[in-house]
């Protein structure tokens, strides 16, 4: 299957299932200019052989099905067409895809968990996951990444009419891991999607969450927290494609950086097409730079092709800790190091508190505390 006939936009011009439609990135392309290609271990060039050791397990509550299928299954690739070479490589290289289905009008007792654990960074692994939430159903999915791996994958979230899906994706890799992933949510009429991304571990992690709408009334909320240590490259590239009327989207990502060559990249692209009257959208990225030698690149983009919008805006800030906040706490007898921790914990905790699963919320807060203790 060749190039997608529908042009994505001036921001995203190409989509194809065919690997040959994508040139090997050189780093001069807009989509790759922030990513250190030499650290991708061949995922972008086709030189990463699929000899990696990655174990994927799914745990589902009663009434929810999980099955492994081949790429000929019609549910594979139904919602998402790869938008870059690594995504296309992953689409063409996976052996079996995991398909999770929540039946119509179902409200499972408990959340769905998908655990991915890598056994080493010597060879690459490729994967594909599809989560289907049928009309009027509700589901919560937790996706956990641990261990050591070189991994590229695509995840499709298909949310039916009036359905609701909440997803927590936790990237807690070992220090040598490389992970490039696309998460795409397709929202039908009056569907609701809530995504929370937590990225802490790995040498290089590049996640690309995206949202599209197939009917009016869709509502997407994309939140994320990341903590970047010395030498880490953590990159998040978001795309919300408003092509239906009266849909909503909200994006809020926050990060903290510390250490030499700690590098965070956040790209937020929102497209409002001509037919998407009544769109209401906002995107925000905030970064706290805690030490010298750390760098945050933050680029919000809005492409508005209609004048009939309910609201559209974006904001981006990157800066140091507020000296006034630190002084205020120290004036009340709190030592500097503890005052610093309290300010950072509050900055990230405002988002982390939105994670509804208590055990995951506490785990993320504990991981942030561990980062602050370094």
3D architecture notes:
Belongs to the iron-sulfur cluster assembly SufBD family. It comes from Nonomuraea montanisoli. This is Fe-S cluster assembly protein SufD. Residues 120-347 form the SUF system FeS cluster assembly SufBD core domain. There is one protein chain. The protein is mainly β and 374 residues long. It folds into two domains: 19-320, no CATH class; 321-374, no CATH class. The chain is 13% helix and 45% strand. It is built from four helices and 16 strands. It has helices at 85-93, 323-330, 336-352, 358-373; strands at 54-59, 65-69, 97-102, 112-133, 138-159, 164-171, 178-187, 192-199, 204-213, 219-228, 233-242, 248-257, 263-272, 279-289, 295-304, 309-319. It has a 16-stranded mixed β-sheet that branches. α2 (323-330) packs across α3 (336-352) and α3 (336-352) runs antiparallel to α4 (358-373). The longest helix has 17 residues, at 336-352.
What's the β-strand tally?
A: 16
Taken together, the total number of domains comes to: 2
Helix content: 10-25%
Number of helices: 4
- In what range is the share of β-strand residues? over 45%
Terminal Cα span: 49 Å
Quaternary structure type: single chain
What is the helix/strand order?
Answer: EEHEEEEEEEEEEEEEEHHH
Radius of gyration: 20 Å
Basic shape: globular
InterPro entries: Fe-S_cluster_assembly_SufBD, SUF_FeS_clus_asmbl_SufBD_core, SUF_FeS_clus_asmbl_SufBD_sf, SUF_FeS_clus_asmbl_SufD
Domain SUF system FeS cluster assembly SufBD core: 120-347
Family: Belongs to the iron-sulfur cluster assembly SufBD family.
Protein name: Fe-S cluster assembly protein SufD
């Amino acid at each position: 299957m060749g190039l997608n006939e529908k042009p994505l936009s001036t921001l995203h011009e190409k989509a194809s299932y065919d690997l040959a439609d994508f040139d090997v990135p050189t780093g001069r392309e807009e989509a790759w200019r922030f990513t250190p290609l030499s650290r991708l271990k061949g995922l972008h060039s086709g030189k990463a052989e699929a000899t990696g050791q990655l174990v994927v397990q799914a745990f589902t509550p009663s009434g929810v099905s999980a099955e492994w299928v081949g790429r000929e299954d019609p549910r594979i690739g139904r919602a998402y067409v790869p938008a870059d070479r690594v995504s296309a490589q992953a689409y063409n290289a996976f052996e079996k895809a995991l398909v999770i289905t929540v039946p119509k009008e179902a409200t499972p007792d408990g959340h769905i968990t998908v655990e991915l654990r890598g056994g080493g960074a010597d060879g690459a692994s490729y994967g594909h996951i599809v989560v289907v939430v049928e009309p009027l159903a509700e589901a919560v999915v937790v996706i956990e990444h641990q261990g050591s791996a070189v991994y590229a994958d695509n995840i499709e979230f298909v949310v039916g009419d009036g359905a609701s899906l909440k997803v927590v994706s936790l990237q807690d890799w070992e220090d040598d891991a490389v992970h490039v992933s696309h998460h795409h949510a397709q929202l039908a009429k009056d569907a609701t999607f809530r995504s929370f991304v937590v990225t802490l571990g790995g040498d290089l992690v590049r996640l690309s969450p995206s949202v599209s709408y197939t009917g009016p009334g869709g509502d997407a909320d994309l939140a994320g927290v990341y903590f970047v240590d010395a030498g880490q490259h953590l990159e998040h590239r978001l795309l919300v494609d408003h092509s239906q009327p009266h849909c909503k989207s909200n994006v809020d990502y926050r990060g903290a950086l510390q250490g030499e060559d700690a590098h965070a990249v956040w790209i937020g692209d929102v497209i409002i097409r001509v037919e998407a009257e009544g769109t209401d959208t906002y995107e925000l990225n905030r970064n706290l730079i805690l030490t010298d030698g750390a760098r945050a690149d933050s680029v919000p983009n809005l492409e508005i092709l209609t004048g009939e919008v309910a609201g559209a805006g974006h904001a981006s800030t990157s800066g140091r800790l507020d000296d006034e906040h630190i002084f205020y706490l120290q004036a009340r007898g709190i030592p500097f190091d503890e005052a610093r921790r309290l300010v950072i914990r509050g900055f990230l905790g405002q988002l982390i508190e939105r994670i509804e699963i208590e055990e995951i919320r506490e785990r993320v807060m504990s991981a942030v505390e561990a980062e602050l203790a370094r």
